[in-house]
Amino acid sequence: MISKVKIAIIGCGNLGASIANGLLMREDFDPKNLTLTKRNTAPLAEFEAKGVHVHTDNIVAAQYADIILLGVKPYNVATILAEIKSALDPEKQLIVSLATGVSLKEMYAVIDPKTVTFRAMPNIAADIQESITCICQEQANPIQEEMIKELFDSIGYTISIDESLMEAATVLGACGIAYVLRFMRAMIQGGIQIGFDSVTASKIVNQTVKGAAELMIQKNIHPEAAIDKVTTPKGCTIVGLNEMEHQGFSSAMVRGVIASYEKIGK
Q1: Which one of 28, 77, 129, 164 is CB 3.0 to 4.6 Å from 3, fit for a cystine?
Q2: Cα–Cα distance, 126 to 75 (Å, whole number)
Q3: Is residue 156 a contact partner of residue 112, using CB atoms and an 8 Å limit?
Q4: Rounded Cα–Cα distance for residues 49 and 203 (Å)
Q5: pLDDT for 83-124, tens place per residue?
């Protein structure tokens, strides 16, 4: 279904570019059905070379799109909606906001309340079609919701949630990828200290983290169940885990998640 839909990403920054890359990896998606806008279009030259429409006119982009993704900063959402309002057709178009902390109610205060509007929170793994995306909406019909799910399934895996959980989804899914990367960096640093060069340490850590994630997904087990298989009595694994806990590893992770969540609410 999504292969026949015209999509515009207004304010195509890092996240928008990741979504665009994910869509273009689909064999059935025509680059001509994708439009990207940005004040400075130079960073989008690579997309233009692939046949994607690239320009600075948000109104034109909105006018010819079936699905309009807003990739702008939260403080610019109302301004952009006001700008493109005259080009919107509430009966035919869907709007998807990627902005953190901007509610559906706030968007409906600017545009026609009949316009079917979604909020979505993917992460930068969309670039390789491995994002987790949480979406919410109030008045979409099943066909419309399925269309948006298919769009984001093109770049990974999609979950529908209640809007009250969107900020939490931002922290766990979007901010969360940075938490995992920081953990990986620390593992690599440890690997270097115990004797590996940085390239080899990176390869070992990358595959270890990928394997751990796939184990959770494919076996559908709790992390502790898998940890129990690795920790033997008086072994080196349990010694390392206990030392990390003594240094506040789990506590620091939880506190970081909560700190990010509280920041969104301010």
Answers
A1: 28
A2: 23
A3: no
A4: 32
A5: 999 999 998 999 999 998 999 999 999 999 999 999 999 998
Residue at 203: amino acid letter: K
Q: 3-28 burial, b for 16+ CB within 10 Å, e for fewer?
A: eebbbbbbbbeebbbbbbbbbbeeee
Confirm or deny that 58 is annotated as ligand binding.
yes
Instruction: Judge contact between 9 and 69, C-beta under 8 A.
Output: yes
Q: What is the phi/psi pair of residue 117, to 5°?
A: -125, 140
> In angstroms, rounded to a whole number, what is the distance separating the alpha carbons of residues 98 and 170?
10
Q: Is 136 annotated as a binding residue?
A: no
Q: Find out whether 175 is annotated in a ligand binding site.
A: no
Q: Is 12 annotated as a binding residue?
A: yes
Q: How does strand 131-137 pair with strand 53-55?
A: unpaired
d(CA 66, CA 20): 15
Task: Please indicate if the annotation marks 40 as binding a ligand.
Answer: no
Domains of the chain and CATH, by start: 2-161 (3.40.50.720), 170-264 (1.10.3730.10)
Half-sphere exposure of 223 (CA within 13 A, CB side): 4
15 marked as binding residue: yes
Which residues are within 8 A (CB) of 20 and not within 5 positions of it... i.e. 6 or more apart? Answer: 9, 12, 34, 36, 47, 52
State the DSSP string of 243-254: HHHHTTHHHHHH
Exposed/middle/buried for residue 154 (C-beta within 10 Å: 0-12, 13-18, 19+)? buried
Residues 6+ apart with CB under 8 A from 152: 120, 122, 131, 133, 135, 158
**pLDDT tens for each residue of 28-62:** 899 999 999 999 999 999 999 999 999 999 999 99
**DSSP label at residue 165:** G
